[in-house]
Amino acid sequence: MGSRNDGAFDPRSLKPNREGLLCVDDGTTLPWQEFGAGPAVVLANGIGVRWPGLAHQISVLRDRRRVVCWDYRGMGPSRLGRPDADVSMGRQADDVLALMNHMGIERAILGGWSMGVQVSLEVLRRRPERVAGFVALLGTYGRPFRGAFPAPVAAVTEATFALALRFPALAQRPLDLAVALPGLAFRVLSGAVFVGADADRRVFDGNVRWVQQTDRRVYLRTMLELARHDASDVLPGVRCPSLIVCGARDHLTPPRVARRMAETIPGAEYLELAGATHFGLIEQQQTLDARLVAFVDRVWGGP
Fold first, then answer.
1. Helices 115-126 and 89-102 sit at what angle, rounded to 10 degrees?
2. 230 class by beta-carbon count within 10 Å (0-12 exposed, 13-18 middle, 19+ buried)
3. How many helices and strands, by DSSP H and E, does the chain display?
4. Cα separations (Å) of 284 from 65, 160, 198, 248?
5. How many other CB atoms are found less than 10 A from the CB of residue 34?
6. Which domains, from first to last, does the chain contain?
7. CB neighbours (10 Å) of residue 237?
8. Could you read off the pLDDT tens digit of each residue along the chain, which spans 303 residues?
9. What are the φ/ψ torsions at residue 19 (nearest 5 degrees)?
10. CA angle (63, 92, 214) in 5-degree steps
């Protein structure tokens, strides 16, 4: 199966069955969205991206399962309880558990894209008995820049984000330009193999808009926490069924990182999407979604 970019499914037509707002213990508010019914699949997004970024995956699961998403703290409509509120991967995982408690979900399959993989691994660190299955979509177990680039380049990348936190207005300008000129931005980014030329533009352009609208300080603080995070020690102890998906042209979380994850987690399944970038979930969604549905059905025993 190949790419599903023929217009048969319009991600903008997808709507939650229910939405709500959860206030957690530090005063931060977390908007959540629910689709479908049945055993739960909790989907953790990429940094700064809202649930429409996972629209293709939600659409194939909502008729079979209860799919739950939420907005990371301080992103989208979420509001931090205080400006310096904790945005670490561990704190994000605490939010997942609070949301599951709020919604009466005892166990769930956790699926994460990009940063969502690291958040899901922190849930596995804290409460593995509440995770029925683990899906890593184009992400890593930690230290993403060190896994993607040679050490000197990784150090410069991390330092650049730290510098941008001191001057957030400068970091905002390229995003403003990308939203103002989406066609040009997409050509530049696809030419740099950041995203594939066959990506669903409706989803990708929406993702760029959400990131552009995120408070720059919150985004950059979260990015630095993501860069420092390491859950490599969690991998050998994962005992739930696991599916690791990577893109062959993903330069942010490259296949060698995904293969190590799959080799270290006992019994993990591995899927490499030929030709896909970090946005393989909107480039080769038919291939990915078929494997995702099959995995979820195995874990929960059929629709």
1. 70
2. middle
3. 11, 8
4. 22, 32, 8, 12
5. 18
6. 11-300 (3.40.50.1820)
7. 12
8. 344 444 578 888 999 999 999 999 999 999 999 999 999 999 999 999 999 999 999 999 999 899 999 999 999 999 999 999 999 999 999 999 999 999 999 999 999 999 999 999 999 999 999 999 999 999 999 899 999 898 898 899 989 989 888 888 888 888 898 999 999 999 999 999 999 999 999 999 999 999 999 999 999 999 999 999 999 999 999 999 999 999 999 999 999 999 999 999 999 999 999 999 999 999 999 999 999 999 999 999 876
9. -140, 155
10. 85
Buried b (16+ CB within 10 A) or exposed e, 92-120: bbbbbbbbbeebebebbbbbbbbbbbbbb
All residues at 6 or more sequence positions from 15 whose CB lies less than 8 Å from its CB, including other chains: none
- Cβ–Cβ under 8 Å, residues 110 and 42: yes
Q: Which amino acid is at 48?
A: G
User: Residues for the chain: how many in total?
Assistant: 303
